[in-house]
Amino acid sequence: MSSKSQQISVGVTKTFPCSYLDTQMEQLLLLQEESIDINLFEQLLSLGFRRSGGTIYKPQCPHCNACLPIRIPSATFTPSRRQKRTLKNNRDLVWKIIGKQAEYHYTLYETYINQRHSDGPMYPASKEQYQHFIGSGWLDPVFIELWIADKLVGVAVTDILPHSLSAIYSFFAPEEHKRSLGSLLILLQCRLAKLMGKDFVYLGYQIDGSRKMNYKRDYTPYQILTRSGWLQTPNDK
């Protein structure tokens, strides 16, 4: 595969226990390039790849296809009634976008992982793990911050690409769980994409059988990548 004559190589990992479905084994296609053109990366997103740090990957599991690449067309997305309530209930928050990570981001991330995801693969949180997960030598994400007065309560790490946004990860203050800040951060990324004239917001993988990963179908209309290409669900709001 090439873009602007750039050649990339693809490897395959060994199988290992799936982080989301207890009965399944996971296997990944991996690209580990020191530098990659962002237009090519966006093409890879459209083929179902994601990035974690500087590594680009795609599930290629031998006996499972539960990971469904999902994206939101920004021009046609409209919040549901519940999502409108989330927006209304958080009108007291201030959100801002900054172009580089800050030390106080990690403090919130550490609290979030250790309190909300102590049963997951990123526990316990560490600065080294955070930097490896968020950072990349070839693409700098932006950070959407949520503030209540002088208290940081949420962060969405987002890649801005020529025609889309890619939601890398979001984390928030666990004590503010009643505000549905995870949902709010997705809604803000959808709003930002529309304001910037981007076509899509990539949300990663929808996994219907995983309680932690089956919420992305709430943002309609959405598109799922199938063997026949991207298929859009009807907007049934």
Search tags:
about 240 residues, alpha+beta, Aminopeptidase, 2 domains, 8-stranded mixed β-sheet, 4-stranded antiparallel β-sheet, 5 helices, about 25% helix, about 30% strand, globular, Aspartate/glutamate leucyltransferase, leucyl-tRNA--protein transferase activity, cytoplasm, Acyl_CoA_acyltransferase, N-end_Aminoacyl_Trfase
Provide an overview of this structure.
- This protein has 237 residues and is α+β, with helices and mostly antiparallel strands.
- The protein folds into two domains: 10-66, no CATH class; 70-232, Gcn5-related N-acetyltransferase (GNAT) (Aminopeptidase).
- 24% of the residues lie in helices and 31% in strands.
- The protein has helices at 38-46, 81-89, 103-116, 127-134, 181-196, and strands spanning 2-3, 6-7, 11-12, 16-17, 25-26, 28-31, 50-52, 55-59, 68-73, 94-98, 142-148, 151-160, 164-172, 200-206, 223-226, 229-232.
- The strands form four sheets. Strands 10-11-12-13-14-9-15-16 form an eight-stranded mixed sheet, with helices on both faces. Strands 3-6-8-7 form a four-stranded antiparallel sheet.
- A hairpin with a 2-residue loop joins strand 15 (223-226) and strand 16.
- The longest helix has 16 residues, at 181-196.
- The termini are far apart.
- The relative contact order is 0.18.
- The model has no long low-confidence stretch (mean pLDDT 92).
- Belongs to the R-transferase family. Bpt subfamily.
- Residues 105-225 form the N-end rule aminoacyl transferase C-terminal domain.
